[in-house]
Amino acid sequence: MNVELKKIKRTVYIVGAILIVATVLLVWFFTRSFLTITVSPRTASVLLDGKKLKVIAGEVGINTSIGDHQLKIEAENYISENEVLKLGRGMNKKVNITLSSTPRPIKINTTGNLLMKGSDFNDGYYFSGSAIFKAKVGISENGNVNVIENRPITGDVINDIKEIVWSPDKQLALLRHSSSIGLFDFMKYDFVHQTETPWCPNGGPFGGGNDIGSIAWSPDNSKIAYYYTPATGERSLIFTNTTNTEITRILNFNQLGIDNPVLRWSPDSEWLIIVPQNKNADENKIYMLNTYSRELKTVVDSGNNIGAVFSPDSNHVLYTATISGQSLPELFLMNKDGNDKTDLKIQANLDTVVWTKDSQDIVVATTDPATKTQTIFRFDTTSVTDSGFAISNLGSTNIQSIAFSDDGKLLLYESGNQIYALKVN
Hints:
Blueprint: H1 2-30, E1 32-40, E2 45-48, E3 51-53, E4 59-65, E5 67-74, E6 80-87, E7 92-98, E8 106-109, E9 113-117, E10 123-128, E11 131-139, E12 145-152, E13 163-166, E14 172-176, E15 181-185, E16 195-198, E17 212-217, E18 224-228, E19 236-240, E20 248-252, H2 253-256, E21 262-265, E22 271-275, E23 286-290, E24 296-300, E25 305-310, E26 316-321, E27 330-335, E28 342-347, E29 353-355, E30 361-367, E31 374-380, E32 385-391, E33 399-404, E34 410-415, E35 418-423
Parallel strand pairs: 1-7
Antiparallel strand pairs: 1-4, 2-3, 2-5, 5-6, 6-32, 8-35, 9-10, 10-11, 11-12, 13-14, 14-15, 15-16, 17-18, 18-19, 19-20, 21-22, 22-23, 23-24, 25-26, 26-27, 27-28, 29-30, 30-31, 31-32, 33-34, 34-35
Keywords: Membrane, Transmembrane, Transmembrane helix
Pfam families: PD40 (PF07676)
Protein name: PEGA domain-containing protein
């Protein structure tokens, strides 16, 4: 009887152990996925959720958990790619990625600055020598960047330019000189009849440009906003017409403790961002003015902010702030009402950041802290992750400003007082 009982117990133990092992294996199988990644070039690095995997002959296999995973493939002299993988229970997923070679930038002009995106999807404007130029680029049938147009749209009559503030249709521009501001009429590029007229409050002298700080032309062309700071001590936000002859004082900046603010419109012309540049950086908060109701509210209550820019759909705002110990400012994102603030963990100047047309991604040109070289990458502001392309071998090029084509295929940028075009897709 005892022998028989022992046999029964042993059988129960064995069956129980088998069931436990089977259950563990079953649970493991249904909570794991097998992933095979094949890359070209075979020397490319593979990172899954930020962890570098061991690649053998261009392939890597790994058991991993189910759910979303961030895959990044990168190699020297190639455009990096990022992809979100959705892995299900017991899935055997294969991913094949071939990186594209890093494109070489095309030099449009050996001298040029003050780059601005144009009215078309693939053009831009810049200042060179003593004239303003228009450049249009495209992609040829063989896939190379093609300069379709690069010509002056003014005569050689423009000198000492510090800033160009364009009208929405690019038919007019405010030209800031060292001590004056002029309104320039391009006359549809008729060089003979182009004119520059003084643009000063109440028809004041041409030198009155010293009284005017930041200028912002509303996208709907209904008004121009500027910071007015005459020698009398007045500090005001002014709304005016194109010729600066119909002036309305909107805000008294002295009462608000705001000095030398940066002004930026929302694309729908309803909101005006105001970022002070006070000597005490702790006072540099971010304000939002509703230009219809004239209501002013603080949307970023902390200081040390530098600038801000709306997304194309006017729903979100990118802004930069100085961070102690960093050589470049930090990039943040928020809703236009100031809620849902997010530190994007990106260091870049705002002039080298542009939104994509769909208001979801941004394109960033900045210095890689690790390699100290320039890198250009696309970043998804919804998932707060790298997305699309990354070009990381531009050397020590110092990019000052960028303009992104509406179709997402071309990038114009200014570097070392030269203008370049780069294929990015």
